């Protein structure tokens, strides 16, 4: 009996492949692997076909594993090529139009081209691009190039402006915007919390368990499985820091929308055809 005890193999701490490949376990593993570098929504697709690099707090596809340069060139010239630019940072400005334009004029100049006051861009029909500088420091102390788009005018006098920038420039531009608008951090700090299942999902799971127990909601140790939500984070911001700032004098609100608004770029003569075939206009409902 003593010999049999010594010959008994120790139980492996790693679960079987079926348990490791469960959806809930995959999401938990992906969240664990994103502690230092955030993944884009298209990370799995790129990871199978590209050499990945870790830059600016993200895990990005650098170069393809196969010789597909000619295919990409044909797509750009004859068809359509899609690029994932979701790693670009987005800052949202909300407030009165006159106050926004008054302060934004301090960090740009008409000598370099169009500004935030351009009529075609101010209406929200077109996207604009310009170079930002430190307040009242043009032509010195350049911050970097950005693109922007205004939300079309509605019934209220408040406007929304989205500014897109490279993640390497985000902290400097955000610091300058907070300075010119005199925005301070709000009291509440955004802390992501895991999402639990709803009552309806619990009832559906209980019904499945009662019908022959085809699905197991408990693992080998008998612990209750806890649903895990996919991380939608930001590689340039600590998740325990504030993501919105407000000015007590002007009421301007600066919000960090990085990784909340996905951004894709379509290149090629068939880009509009792809968009019209993919997107469908929603029916207007009046209350």
TrEMBL record:
Pfam families: POP1_N (PF06978). Residues 5-95 form the Pop1 N-terminal domain. It comes from the Eukaryota. GO terms for cellular component: nucleolar ribonuclease P complex; ribonuclease MRP complex. Coiled coil: none annotated. GO terms for biological process: tRNA 5'-leader removal. This is POP1 protein. It comes from Stercorarius parasiticus.
């Amino acid at each position: 009996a003593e010999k049999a005890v010594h010959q008994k193999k120790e139980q492996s701490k790693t679960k079987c492949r079926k348990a490791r490949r469960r959806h809930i376990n995959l999401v938990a593993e992906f969240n664990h692997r994103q502690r230092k570098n955030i993944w884009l929504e298209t990370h799995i697709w790129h990871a199978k076909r590209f050499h990945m690099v870790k830059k600016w707090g993200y895990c990005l596809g650098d170069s393809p594993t196969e010789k597909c340069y000619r295919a990409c060139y044909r797509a750009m010239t004859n068809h359509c090529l899609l690029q994932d630019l979701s790693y670009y940072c987005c800052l949202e400005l909300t407030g009165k139009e006159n106050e926004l334009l008054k302060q934004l004029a301090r960090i740009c100049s008409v000598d370099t081209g169009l500004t935030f006051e351009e009529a075609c861009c101010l209406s929200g029909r077109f996207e604009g691009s310009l170079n930002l500088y430190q307040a009242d420091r043009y032509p010195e102390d350049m911050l970097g190039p950005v693109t922007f788009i205004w939300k079309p005018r509605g019934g209220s006098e408040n406007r929304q402006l989205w500014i897109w920038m490279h993640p390497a420039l985000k902290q400097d531009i955000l610091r300058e915007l907070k300075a010119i608008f005199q925005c301070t951090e709000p009291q509440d700090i955004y802390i992501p919390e895991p999402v639990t299942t709803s009552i309806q999902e619990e009832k559906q799971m209980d019904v499945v368990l009662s019908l022959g127990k085809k699905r197991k909601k408990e693992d080998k140790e008998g612990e209750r499985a806890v649903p895990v939500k996919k991380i939608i984070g930001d590689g340039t911001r600590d998740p325990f820091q504030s993501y919105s700032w407000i000015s007590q004098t002007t009421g301007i609100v600066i919000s960090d929308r990085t990784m909340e608004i996905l951004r894709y770029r379509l290149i090629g003569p068939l880009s509009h055809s792809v968009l019209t075939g993919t997107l469908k206009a929603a029916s207007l409902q009046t209350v």
